[in-house]
């Protein structure tokens, strides 16, 4: 049995507006994943050398990996929310949100500091 059939066996159909909202949220997570991957590729392709050799590649790789993880977890989040709505449970908390937001902030701050150091030196 495939996953859509297993999903439909649980609970009852939620209001379609809620399912569509859940789908829009899923697509927002996918857009975020694409932006992270594009940012990592852009950093590697277009940023000037940073103060520490090889660090640009590491930061770019971290951004691409964050995009991969976000993309991989987006469907799981959609599915958990859909199951919760079908079973009239509270919606699950997006566990990746704090990791993603703090991770992006740390990488962005590191890039900023390294660019400033590179331009001063």
UniProtKB/TrEMBL annotation:
Recorded GO CC terms: plasma membrane
Compartments it resides in: Cell membrane
Predominant location category: membrane
DUF202 domain sequence ranges: 17-82
InterPro entries in the record: DUF202, IM_YidH-like
PANTHER family tied to this protein: DUF202 DOMAIN-CONTAINING PROTEIN, FGR18P
The protein's name: Putative membrane protein
Lineage of producing organism: Bacteria, Bacillati, Actinomycetota, Actinomycetes, Pseudonocardiales
């Amino acid at each position: 049995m495939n996953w859509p059939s297993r999903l439909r066996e649980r609970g009852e159909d939620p209001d379609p507006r809620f399912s569509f909202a859940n789908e829009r949220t899923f697509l927002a997570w996918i857009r975020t994943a694409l932006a992270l991957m594009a940012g990592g590729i852009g950093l590697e392709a277009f940023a000037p050398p940073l103060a520490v050799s090889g660090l640009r590649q590491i930061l770019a790789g971290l951004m691409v990996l964050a995009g991969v993880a976000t993309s991989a977890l987006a469907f799981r989040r959609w599915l958990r929310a859909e199951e919760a709505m079908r079973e009239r449970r509270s919606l699950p908390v997006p566990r990746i949100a704090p990791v993603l937001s703090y991770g992006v902030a740390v990488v962005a701050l590191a890039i900023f500091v390294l660019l400033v150091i590179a331009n001063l030196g």
